[in-house]
């Protein structure tokens, strides 16, 4: 065990975190297993290369395609080994942090919350997240919360004003009764009666206050406008006097609570965290770079207001579920031995709203436990020089884009001269002192919880955005292999590439789920006979890989049903989101298309929610991605029926020998697509597949089948 890197001699301070590999036996077994699978993959490649059909026929082309797909799958599988080869777990020692540092020695923290649309991201949800991070178990005078509102909405601003008042009750309440989670929405949704340590009177009073807040905010939001009385009472609204729209407005910055002012105290007389509303300047003709542009502006604005050495970023729905997350992160940053090298602490993306056996495979336990986590919170520190970090550029899409926005934006989004303090904006351009290392931390009590999409259309769009972003990075000079060369280990480079190359799985997968099935109805064999020796590596690789994947899911706490659903989602995403992501990436390289950011909606209507709870896929309005999805599903259904009946009628079961694996593949694809057939043929509700999708799919599928049977 490497206990945080203690190297000889007596340390004045003990390590604040440990890096452990507790499952040595399991790791050894995994490596053995991986060795056998790799041998199987090599044999498959060998078989393909040595059994090439004679030239001049369709079969040869189909065969070469199989070879290409299998080469890719094999290579990609090797990449995925990297995240499993030597798994490590991090543990923090917050008690030691408390022994090593007095509260007032701890660094201050700037917390950035991003929101972009009051309709898709209801203000009440946004301020609950803001309140949850204001109420961190941390000295309030060291907390500075910035809300970036890309909609420049006065509704969101109003809600934040309300939150700034509510916070004065909420924060002391949270501290006194050790409330968890500290998002009022989440807390009151989970706790319906006063817990033992709480005086019932105080608890109900708090609940009443929260209810009033909700009613006030929601009624203003529903009406869509700010009542005159409020408008004249709150000074900040004057910035909305002229006509402004979400895409065209000057910069707006309002300090709602100034932590430096004496009067900024809560009901117990304690200091309050600084709270700032910011809507950066937007003009229709200027690229604003979406969330990345916001972070960029947030860095500038915060550097003239609080300029904390630590930055934390959450989405507006990602509330803090663990009031100690900042202290956990500090255990990494302030560790005497290794803290200097750590630039980021990343938490996995966990969801609050997912049900058991979620049909979309949203509870990505395996991804969180096994792979590198999807970023949701990034904390950065440049402790060595005490200045603001130059944000690392290759970890995730949004962070990378900060670099783009930076160069692209000539104008200051905020006139910084107006602000007290004279810290140089140049601080932000400081280059990193050394390598930027990132640690991934997945604590027992989840650090953050957000809203997962519960509609297939939304999920596919979201994944398209992610994979496109990852691919964009992987093919740029910020790719882990270029930028990381010599700085991070090969294993880590490969680990990043697992997500980095998600998109490239699209073509091989699409090939694998169409061509073998089409060849099946045509009697063209693409796999070894069942009795042949070459059959064994194919069978072994498939069975071993899927059993291992199932075992891994079960071990990480997913159910078998969730595993199966997740497999379906992989298939669907690979053939739709990833495919379009790759195509759009190519289009962008050719200069025909631009980056976009389609927001995931954080509210869903009640009927849709019911369907989600019942495990029914929600399709919604027409999307070209559904056409691909249903075409693949219908094609395989047709191939299965035609192929099997043809052989049973003409040649008896014996004819299967050479087509056995193709038949199995086809049946599996049909099995995994059952919810799609249900949505196509049986269901008739609003969430089901639009009939236009079915029609277009049939138009695609029929000619393919006819063409392939044509002799
Ligand atoms: O123009 C924009 C668009 C989005 N956002 C914010 O970006 C965040 C993420 O958007 P969301 O629609 O929730 O996307 P998700 O796919 O759910 O977010 C995941 O994927 C994003 C990258 O695509 C990461 O930035 C997020 O941290 C990660 O949770 C939200 O707070 C938005 O308000 C902006 O501030 N400005
Ligand atoms: Mn989100």
What does this structure look like?
There is one protein chain. The protein is α/β, with parallel strands linked by helices and 711 residues long. It has 24 helices and twelve strands. The strands form three sheets. An eight-stranded mixed β-sheet has the order 5-6-4-3-7-10-9-11, with helices on both faces. The chain has a two-stranded antiparallel ribbon with strand order 1-2. Helix 4 (123-134) runs parallel beside helix 5, helix 17 packs across helix 18 (560-575) and helix 21 packs across helix 22 (660-672). The chain starts with 16 loop residues before the first strand and ends with a helix. The site of uridine-5'-diphosphate-glucose (UPG) has 23 residues, from strand 3, helix 9, helix 12 and helix 13. UDP-alpha-D-glucose binds at residues 121, 150.
* Class based on secondary structure composition and strand pairing: alpha/beta
- Rg, alpha carbons: 28 Å
Distance between the termini: 65 Å
Largest sheet geometry: 8 strands, mixed
Strand content: 5-15%
Q: How would you describe the shape?
A: globular
How confident is the prediction overall: mean pLDDT?
84
Number of distinct beta strands: 12
Q: Percent range for helical residues?
A: 40-55%
The poorly predicted ranges are 1-11, 371-435
